[in-house]
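Listing S7. Sequence submitted for prediction.
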Amino acid sequence: MKTTIVMASLAAALAGCATRESANVYSQREAGHEQAVRSATVDSVRKVTIEGRETGIGSAAGAATGGIAGHAIGGGSGSAVAAILAGVGGGVAGRAIERSSTKKDAFEITVRLESGELRAIVQEADMDLQPGDRVRLVTLGGVTRVTH
């Protein structure tokens, strides 16, 4: 039961670590702020991956889960050794799970500005963009998004 609670807590924590590299998702802080808009033409689109994040939550939750499970396995002094070994293994596994679960498919979108200058922007793969498409580059606080 304790293991289930810890794993559920890990899943909830990881869901809260979602990033916003999408053209379609804005934070509450971004809403209502004026954004600079430039026109451009898509030059190329390449599939890439936005690597997963490591906040330490996965390692901590994995170590706690492993430690609890290890303690339950061992008996007497073996219980402490099993808890330590399982805690270390759980921490490593939790880190890998967090990194994998927060990884995102993305596009590297190269656009040509009206001045002829090329720019590349990486964002989540949540829009269908093709070379030749007319797009807008929307910039706020140093973050640029490509949108139709």
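Caption to Listing S7: primary sequence and predicted structure tokens for the chain studied. Residues 77-101 form the longest helix (25 residues). Confidence is low (pLDDT under 50) at residues 1-19.
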